[in-house]
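Q: How would the structure tokens look for this protein?
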Amino acid sequence: MRVFPFYLLVILLAACSDRPEARFEPVDAKELGIDFENTLAENDTVNILQYEYLYNGGGVGVGDFDRNGLPDLFFSGNLVSSELYLQQLDGNFRKVTGPAGLTTERWCAGVLVGDIDGNGYEDLYLSVLHPGDERPSPNLLFLNQGPQGPDSIPRFQEVAAEAGIADPGFGTQAALLDYDRDGRLDLYVLNNSLENYPRTIAKGTDTLGRGASVDRLYRNITPPNGPLRFEPVDQLRTEGWGLGVGVQDFDRNGYPDLYIGNDFMSNDFLLLNREGTFTDVITDRMPHQSKNTMGVDIADLNNDGYPEIMTVDMLPDDNLRRKTMFPDIPFSQYAQEQRGGYNSQYVRNALQVNNRDGTFSDVALQAGVAATDWSWAPLLADFDNDGLRDIFVSNGYPRDVTDRDFIDYSQQVDMFGTQEARYQAVARALEEVGGVYQQDFIFRNEGDLRFTVTDWLPDDPTYANGAVTVDLDNDGDLDLVTNNINQPVRIYRNRSRELFPDSTHYLSVRLAGPAGNPDGLGATVYLVAGNLRLMAEQQRQRGYLSTLDARLHFGLGARTAIDSVVVEWPGGRRSVLTEVAVDHQITIPVAESMAPAPAAPPFFSAPAVVLTPENLDWLPRHEESGYTDFDRYALRLRDNSHGGPAMAVTRSGRLIFGGAAGQAVSVYDMASGAQVQSLPETEASEATQLLLFDYDGDGDEDLYVGNGSSEFISREEYFPDQLYVNEGDSFVLVTDVLPSLAVPTGAVAAADLEGDGDLDLFVGAREESGRYPLSPVSYVLRNDDGRFIVAEQVDAGMVTGAVWEDLDGDGRPDLATVGEYSSLRIFYNRPDGWVAQPVDPDLSGWWYSLTPNDLDGDGDTDLLAGNLGLNSLYSASPSQPLTVHADDYDGNGAIDPIVTAYLDGKNHPVHPRNTLARQLPSLKRQFPDYATYGTWTEQQMPALSEKGVRLEVREFRSAWFENRGDGTFQVHFLPPSGQTAPIRDAIATTLADGRPALLAVQNDYAIEVLNGRLDAGTGLAITLGAVGEPEVLPDYWSVRGDARSVVRWNDLFLVGFNDGRVAAYR
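A: Here is the predicted structure in token form.
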């Protein structure tokens, strides 16, 4: 480590700090010689009211432009010139912009650094905007001619036009990649044009190349020893308001792919490269994405050898900002966006975990990284050198134009006065609103894709845009540099090596690639150190508007030896180094690589898929009617009208499939695939439960059809269930044997309760008709000589799952139930009557399913209970529960379910202001503006505590309940990988090694649109680990979509999807 002024300044600042152990310490950039400030002085022609991208800021570029071995810094300027600072041997920086020929007079945004012409010196390609001016303002290419003259300053020559890449679009950023694998670096140019219509409106996606915001791909056609030349490639046609670009070979076919982050309504793009041809596959590979995607970064966060994708958006992390940003998001608006060809998008960061099968699942909410406010640059890097990459996010915005009170005021002002008067009034109001002045975030990676917010950065709110990680002082840890608006550059020195030298070992790797790709872009580096496996692909354009250092950084923790470092070069060559020393920088030249490459060692375990999809074209499709609860009930967080499909399989190989409203229950022969029967009596209703049981004692399986769905709340004639007897070749409806129960069925189960040889029933009610979330009445029906009569009325809450099992070993079947806003309840069947007991009141949740099993093989019945999981906006604990308050608060005869949850340590309504006002217009007088509503808590709404029903959720985790043998249970929560989505159904199976297991299906798309659909689940295989805790087996099968049910016939597993086709796995 060099003790230069950079380090000495930190010591002086730390001496005055009240946080002496802060991992990052601020450095006064001006004292180092860096005086850049991206100053934006608003005026009558350049201001946020006339140019919505005024404060999108500038980027940072890291390079060794003078080749002295030290990283230099370049900052792009908007209304000021961009600047280049060369790091000197003493650690200070020297501004050389003018002599270097880099003074800019255009609005420069993205910074690309790389040796584009292959002369050994790093060049600069700057993306240029043209606010308020429709005339072309081409991007700039500055080729580095190397140090010249007595001052040894590198000279640059601007040749974008001559090279054919003076792109005239509304340039945001560009990236280098050898997309056609011809050994020359090509160029992807990201564009984002202003439009003459609001970009928040779902007008439909232009895919014909006519949009002003179509990106461009340029192929490098430079002849041998000839001048640099590019030509446009006519591949990209879909418009996208681009703000972020990431390059990575996702499918490992040797060709670089692209992730493009687009602002506003535009879908992001996941462009897979098949031998030089790009195809956007994001709709098939990602269930949803960020809505206003800004920066993008890509790296392996869980050390499984597959890269994750991080995109950032604008979701605030505090209640006041959320309530002043979101007025109301009607489901009808979301549905219109879907019809317009837009993918599901939500206003929050996305952390797309790689499922190792080509698909991705967003786990940002579960990981704790979804809300970082007005965010720009995500950077995935190992800041504490522990072997796990952490997350940095820059954020801030000088004018909060998303403040709904300001927006409402400006819309009212627009109705009166002259245009100039209206403009001045809005401008004054905007000054009063102020900015989103924010602290940047660093999240520490705790493993298992769990992150915690750190206090590693100083208390230093900024308006930070572009950012880079770089080891400026070459001491072995990554420092941070940000380009800020109307503020000096921020430099934060990382003190990890200084504070924790024994647990922060590292290796820095510089790749020396071939002449046409000197940084080795696209090469993958694997590192093995004991049980640590690390992977990094060399790509430098990362985060937002910025280019990182060419050196790859690997944190090693306390490990002091490296077994091997392997480089997979583009084109198939391989470099292998063994017994590498730690705590220094190594250079790996492609010239010393091997070709053809030897067999690759198993750096990471390959996906061990057991069940694979099987195409059976006869499988039925579930078709929803188009009804949704959200159109009728503004305050509901879940749509209980989308319950099916229910499925069952007979011993003889008949699949029984329960349709939605207007779709009759149908029967299929599994062997032939032929439909053999339809049950017309069920067509008008919606079959949500199917139960096969021997009703008449003749040894075959009869069919109980449970009807539900809140779609028929006002039409109770569609709720009564049906019973069909098995006549061998068909099911025949039996009438006058069931009582008329006008409740939607949430669960049904059969058992012989009296020991008289026939089967009785429990019918669990899903909700009380028209009075959600009040507790409905469920029923125990006694089989009395073939007729069922009500034997017991049961208060089991809003039931979603029920089983009869002898849970306490006394020979009598007991009843276990779960439901929404309830816990696992056991109704013990005693000789003197029923004894109801919740397993634990602190486990009240949004339970979805209940599956009996014997995972521990001890002969008694355990229970798997599927809950919401942890990957949602909602959180709950015994001390900070999520609560629904229900009553007719406005006296109009309808129940109003108001939900509150904790944020910032206080219990606030979860609903946006206008959503609540739609249901309760009278409340608008109590919160006349969004700012007032943003401060409201449960305590300030006395009606919530003075009247009505109060139900709590204290636990959202799914769990396995171990039966201790006496009917009491010990709860074991599933690991984090089992909490990514709700568990909707499960079925028992046996693994190849003989262990019992459960196969579970997941997800719920019927969730209000602020949270968005819960779609990260890909199916689970659950068994017990060596210490008796449940574990989830990775890659066992891949079940994506809104799965609701799973059944088995021989070795074939069938999964039913809501509003989708049944899928088969074998």
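The mean pLDDT is 92.

The two ends are 58 Å apart (CA to CA).

Upvote if useful.
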